[in-house]
């Protein structure tokens, strides 16, 4: 009985390795940038509250909530994630390994 002959995947190993490493680096960087963005938004909130308490500014938090709430609903975030992954994997022959590396990088970052 003769065994099944498997195709030679050697030419694709470099692409898969590069895709995984590139995805990991992008995921790691995105998580770090996200943390910096969260810190910046937190500091902005503190500054606004201190300025409002001192009487320099008046903040309409109800209006801000009304404007921001649609952006934070789950379908909007899912669409944003899908658009990000689509943009990052555009025209990449190694998109699957890139997405895998991206998820690992987000977890590690």
UniProtKB/TrEMBL annotation:
Keywords: Membrane, Transmembrane, Transmembrane helix. Coiled coil: none annotated. InterPro entries: FUN14. It holds the Pfam family FUN14. It is found in: Membrane. It comes from the Bacteria. The chain crosses the membrane at residues 12-30, 37-56, 87-106. Belongs to the FUN14 family. This is FUN14 family protein.
